[in-house]
Write a structure and sequence with these properties.
The chain is mostly helical. It contains 27 helices and no strands.
């Protein structure tokens, strides 16, 4: 086991994070993690490399490692490295809570925040509350109870709930499409907080997410009659709602109306939303015109704007222009993110351009970029459907070498593809890697292996041992 004893520089940080995340993700969930952390993260490391903790937690979250690994790593760093900057700890806390929420460890999240209210009260923020309330296991009553409980935790830290915290509660309902519950919560609690446009805009966001534009417009006009003054965020929500329904012309009319208002600032997000809308109606010319107008309006051409334009070309099956936008991004030193790669891979797959997918994949791996789950699954499905599970296995090994074990659906696709080509030992190796990391593969992967090796006594014996381990681990944690 390699011990890190010197600060990380730009050339070694990536490989060091790969090594550390691999060691942590492969550590059995049934064994305590602290001894391993003491051996691989001595005091000299995190204190001289404060960006290491959020980078490592981000990698663990991406690899869907057991959530308690993230919690133990965060607490270990918090206790042993008190000099870590607040910015690093804040990002790290958000990542830890995301991991706990995904694994339904709500009790652990509440305990963590209770501890932080006394030791690090400055880490408690509306964003942290929003993550806490986003737990999928919460219903209306339990959400309100948790909100009241969190209010007491914040009060213990000397903090008071305001409009931003109230907005976090409403957003937790709206983003899951529970608009009626959001409205009920607003009517019940709005008198406790000072008036702010934030909760109102959040309710409008909920109507937008529900896809009911008529209800959105009715609610909006009711608010205006009561004296509500719409701002840029309000218009952005309504424009986005029209764009997603394919009513691009109505969205442009709203944009013109907004431009005439003195209190509404035109932002890059609003124009980017319109570019997306032009793409949905397959009007790449309008998308390009809006994109070019951003510079004339003094708006920053960020990665989001380029991705929106790229998606507009992809929807129109103009992959040459889409690839040209990718080249523009690289020339501007913006770099591609997962949205960029996912958009291009989807477009190439739709055009059945396997050679283009392969070239872009090699380009992505060459930059040591780590794709997110949806992009991994698109690639794995493409490779296996075209009888190239060897490429899927190569991608699997690449991700594992980065300490990032793919999602179980990617495992299902790969195991099926490998077994159909007779590579049973490689399929077994992939399943075993998942088990060794403390994660639970799907039943489908086991059934495929069982069907293929039913006439091989040795493999059946090995598989029976794996299934026994699977049943034991299934009791520990689902993911």
């Amino acid at each position: 086991m390699k011990l890190l004893t010197k600060p990380l520089n730009s050339s070694s940080s990536s490989s060091s994070i790969d090594q550390l995340s691999t060691l942590i993700t492969s550590h059995p969930s049934s064994l305590p993690l602290r001894p391993l952390l003491r051996s691989i993260l001595p005091p000299s490391v995190l204190s001289t490399s404060p960006s290491l903790l959020p980078s490592l937690l981000s990698r663990l979250t991406l690899s869907r490692s057991p959530s308690l690994h993230s919690l133990h790593l965060f607490l270990y760093s918090l206790v042993n490295f008190p000099s870590l900057p607040s910015s690093s700890l804040s990002v790290s806390l958000s990542l830890t809570l995301h991991s706990l929420s995904r694994a339904h460890h709500l009790h652990s999240s509440v305990q963590l925040l209770s501890y932080l209210s006394l030791s690090h009260p400055t880490l408690l923020s509306p964003r942290v509350l929003s993550i806490l309330l986003s737990s999928p296991e919460l219903n209306f009553v339990s959400s309100l109870d948790l909100f009241a409980r969190a209010e007491k935790i914040w009060a213990r830290a000397g903090l008071k709930f305001g409009p931003e915290e109230f907005t976090a509660l409403l957003r937790s309902f709206c983003l899951s499409g529970r608009v009626a519950e959001a409205r009920a919560a607003y009517l019940r609690l709005h008198s406790k907080f000072q008036f702010s446009p934030l909760p109102i805009n959040t309710l409008l966001l909920g109507f937008k997410e529900s896809g009911n534009i008529d209800a959105l417009d009715t609610f909006y006009h009711e608010l205006v009659l009561r004296g509500f003054e719409p701002n840029s965020v309000t218009y952005c929500i309504r424009i986005d709602a029209y764009c997603k329904k394919g009513r691009f012309g109505d969205a442009l009319q709203l944009f013109d109306e907004m431009c005439k208002r003195e209190n509404c600032e035109i932002t890059a997000k609003i124009v980017t939303t319109l570019i997306h809308g032009a793409g949905i109606v397959k009007n790449p010319i309008a998308a390009r015109n809006l994109f070019d107008e951003m510079s004339q309006r003094g708006l920053n051409l960020d990665r989001g704007a380029y991705n929106a334009l790229m998606a507009a070309y992809v929807r129109s099956k103009d992959m040459r222009s889409a690839m040209s936008v990718m080249q523009e991004m690289e020339n501007q030193n913006l770099g591609l993110d997962d949205v960029s790669y996912n958009t291009l891979f989807c477009g190439l797959k739709r055009c059945n351009n396997l050679e283009g997918i392969w070239k872009l994949y090699k380009k992505m791996v060459g930059t040591e970029f780590l794709p997110r789950t949806r992009t991994v699954i698109i690639l794995m499905k493409t490779f296996c459907e075209n009888q190239r599970p060897d490429l899927g296995l190569e991608m699997w090994d690449y991700l594992v070498s980065k300490g990032c074990l793919p999602h179980k659906h990617a495992l299902d696709l790969l195991v099926t593809g490998l077994c159909c080509r007779g590579a049973v030992s490689e399929a077994y190796r992939c399943v075993k890697q998942v088990l060794d990391s403390g994660r639970v593969p799907s039943e489908r992967a086991f059934r495929v292996l069982e069907t293929i090796v039913k006439h091989n006594v040795l493999f059946l014996l090995i598989l029976s041992i794996i299934i026994k381990l699977y049943n034991e681990m299934f009791k520990i944690e689902k993911y």
